[in-house]
Amino acid sequence: MNMKNRLILQFISLLLVASFISIGFVTVAFSFMHAKINELEMSRDFTRAGLSNLVTTLRLENGNITFDPDMLAQVKKSGGWLQTIDENGMVTSSYLTPPDVPNHYRPGEIHAIWNGEKQFPYSLYIWIEPKDGVTYTLLYGVTYKEAELLKQISKAATLQSGSVAIPASLEQELLQSNMWLQLLDANGTEIASLLKPPNALNHYSVQELTLRIQYPARYQERIFTTYDDQTKQTWILHAPATASGTTTSLFSLSSEGQIAGVTIVVLLIAIITVFLLLSLWYGHRFGTPMLHLLEWLNQIAKGTYKEPQDRNGLPKSLTKSGHYKRNYRIYQEVMFSMHHLVACLQRNNEIRNQLEKTREEWIAGVSHDLKTPLSSILGYSKMLENKNYEWTPEEIRDFGSTMSEKSTYMDALINDLSMTYRLKNGAYSLTFTSQDINELVRRSIISFLNHPQFQEASLTFRPALPTIHYPVDSYAFQRMVDNVIANAILHNPVGTPIEICLLACETDDPNVEGFTLTIRDGGTGMNPEVAHQLFERYYRGTNTDRLTQGTGLGMAIAKELALAHGGEIQVASELGKGTSIAFTFQKEKDLLPSYHLKNLFTHSN
């Protein structure tokens, strides 16, 4: 998997994790809010929310009905009691049932109690609901102390100038329970009140009073009434929304809005916290490698190529076992590229330093090579200029011969320098004509064998059969061959066998033609460093103590001439076993060679 796909996968994974966590928080928050609102509703009026939950949570175990303990606690808090009856009216289970409650009900009896046709000391509520194929009937009874209190007040109250006068004990009970009292006439208009808060209504329509009685949560109060049929007056007792003997538990919140508000705020805080934590983790996971790379690049800019390390001296991106750390694996292609870049920079730096060193050495050598013949020429010219001494014709001829020899050497050195840079910059023009390559190589070998300086050279030529005709610049090609053969003779012991082999290239493409010229010696060989620098203009493979001949530019010129002919060069050398230099030239038929832009050299031991 490449870096792009890994990053996409990481982004998607992070979004999925954040989404699942958010959904989980929302689910928990709404479940919690629903439970608390349900609890609040049961605390206000257990008959509206509690009875259905009782049926939902009941279980039948070994023929016995059991209820959820939390629901039974709500029954106790509401001040009520509970019974379940079967189809025959027999009580099958009960909870906190008072002694004066029957354990068997006739069919018409329950209906009469429910409609108020039969006197019953408790308010009775009935809930019938099927569950798992069984129909359950719940009876919930409760005594509202507020209703009993209102009956006592209506009997003991007297009117005094628009105010209700009641016994001190009853008034104290109203104060303790945060309740207040109103008396309405037949039209619903207030006649008198007690402990009435500001902004309370003074008149009630039939609809208004009915709604307030039926929906206590909406109006944040519970209303109990008693009607005097003789006077047509209505007594109203206003009580807090929370049922008698119960309290709310969610930080004393007493409304659905407060519960929802607090839940949403907590939910938002939780989600923001999670996103902050995920952002910190995300920043650490993706940012740390980026900061590491920036630090590394900054060090590279300062010339330090080593990867930044931790306190233990290990690269920050690697474990002790040498593998990439988890957060660095995403950028492993970048890390590979950085290591490759560092290796190239280090290698280039070494090459640059080596080139600078060899450049200085070569300049020093060339300066020495120029000063030596110049010194000879200058010395002889001074001697000839001296009027105090008469030179013989023979001495003058010796002086002239030496000066001519030194001048010729200097001219060759300057020409080689000029040719090297012209070839390097493409300013040296070649004329390509079809030549017999066997013949060109043979001429070069014969010229060496006939030269007095190289009479002891051991040269063997293996021509190509049949002969090869290839478009080359005859002078430039022979110069290339001469330089390589001369290098093999001069830098090996006298008599070292040197083999020159010419072989036609075999290719699968019939439109491609070419040949390979290999110059192989059995001499001292070279180490990898010398072999790598063999064709550099500023490099001599010998030390300063050893006598060297030539200008030191022969191999550099040979390389540029080979490239100008579209050739490639391969070098194989081993210390003590000799060196092999192979020139390969290929082109399409009927086309002239083109400058080979690839500078391909290989070295093998």
TrEMBL record:
Lineage: Bacteria, Bacillati, Bacillota, Bacilli, Bacillales
Any GO molecular function: phosphorelay response regulator activity
Name used for this protein in its record: histidine kinase
Keywords per UniProt: ATP-binding, Kinase, Membrane, Nucleotide-binding, Phosphoprotein, Transferase, Transmembrane, Transmembrane helix, Two-component regulatory system
Spans through the membrane: 259-282
Example GO BP: osmosensory signaling via phosphorelay pathway
PROSITE patterns per UniProt: HIS_KIN
Biological source species: Brevibacillus laterosporus LMG 15441
Span of domain Histidine kinase: 365-589
